[in-house]
Amino acid sequence: MSEKTKIETETETKALSPGASMRLDAILKGVFDKLASQRDLNKAQGGLMRDLNIKIDCLLRLLADKEVVSNEEYEGAYNEILGVRFLEETEEIKKGDVAWIGYEAILEGQKNPIAKSEMAVSVGEGRVSFEDSLLGRKIGDKIEHTEKMDDPRKPDMMGKNVTFMIDILKVKTLVDGGPHVVQ
User: Which end of the chain has a smaller Cβ tally under 10 Å, C or N?
Assistant: First the structure.
């Protein structure tokens, strides 16, 4: 190129003066340097968190091996700090609880499940279609929930019924006075 750098757009080509071109290069270099620094920082933080989790896990194993604290005692103390507790088997699930469930999804006309998994469901957030069927239920309950598939990403299943066979495994609920972080 000559003394001017060209910037091409969809409609026209514009020429930048050498000074403007140098400023643009400097700005772009600064942006890319910041992105690289942020990526490196994120990697470092991820590594630190991984190391911290490993050290905490090792400490917990040592404490449990020496019978200083059991896993149940640790989890109880941890939940108390978070301001949560596990529901008793006689208590009903309500909005705001987090239920751990096992489920199978069976598509109409098929015998084998199209999905089988365990997951945590924050009841009342509307992220899972069958959340409302958990309300008022208890640990150990088995639920059958059927709905019509309407996911455009799965055209071969559109309009067919899918039945979820749900087992409620455990539930955490908020306790007054805690920071209310349910995990």
Answer: N
CA distance linking residue 4 with residue 71, whole number of Å: 69
CATH of 84-174, one of 3.40.50.261, 3.10.50.40, 3.40.50.720, 1.10.3810.10: 3.10.50.40
Other CB atoms closer than 10 Å to residue 168's CB: what's the count?
A: 22
Q: Could you read off the pLDDT of 90-111 as tens digits, one per residue?
A: 999 999 899 999 999 999 888 8
**3 state DSSP class of 8:** strand
CB 123 within 8 A of CB 99: yes
Instruction: State both tokens at 173.
Output: 């609920």
pTM of structure: 0.57
Using CA atoms, how far apart are residues 115 and 92, in angstroms rounded to an integer? 27
Break the chain into its structural domains and give their ranges. Answer: 6-62, 84-174
